Amino acid sequence: MLVDGAGAGGGALVVGEGTRAELRRVRMLGNTATVGGGALWVAGTLAQPTSALLVDCEIWGNTSSGASGGGALRILGPGASVAIRRSVVAANTADGFNGGAVAIQNGELALDRVTFSGNSADGAGGAIHLTASSADATLTMTDSTVAFNT
């Protein structure tokens, strides 16, 4: 369990450039970030790709209070990719910005059998906020549910 962590980016965990993380049956609860990614921050570049795989995880009640958003997860950079499978992402909050659950900028997110519910953002994307500036941003969803987000 990753519980009640606090940090600037990624209140519980930061997956930095050129690394790979795999989390299975992990609960991320009540973490807080002042910049973005209440529970998890994943950043990569084309020269140093970064990836994270989350399987059978529960990501609940995390908060981002900063300008990068992503109450639960922040994905940043053209080399950053995250895959989430058979998981629940609920009751996360982006105070003052976008992506109540996830904020993606120039990165990739693949979802398979994931439920997003009860997440909220003060800005755009109660559940997911996807933007591209210098590179493509990609969201792929399979057999997933996005409901009751604000």
* Helical content (DSSP H or I, runs of 4+): under 10%
Low-confidence stretches: none
Number of strands: 19
Structural class: mainly beta
The separation of the N and C termini measures 27 Å
Helix run count: 0
Tell me the Rg in angstroms: 13 Å
Order of helices and strands: EEEEEEEEEEEEEEEEEEE
How would you state the average pLDDT, rounded?
A: 96
Please report which band the strand proportion falls in: under 5%, 5-15%, 15-25%, 25-35%, 35-45% or over 45%: over 45%
Shape: globular
Largest sheet: 9 strands, parallel
Structural description of this entry:
The chain has no helices and 19 strands. It has strands at 2-3, 6-9, 13-15, 20-24, 27-29, 32-36, 40-43, 50-55, 58-60, 63-64, 73-76, 80-90, 93-94, 102-105, 108-117, 120-121, 128-131, 138-142, 145-147. The strands form 3 sheets. Strands 1, 4, 5, 8, 9, 12, 15, 18 and 19 form a 9-stranded parallel beta sheet that branches. Strands 2-6-10-13-16 form a 5-stranded parallel beta sheet, with no helix packed on it. A 5-stranded parallel beta sheet has the order 3-7-11-14-17, with no helix packed on it. The mean pLDDT is 96.
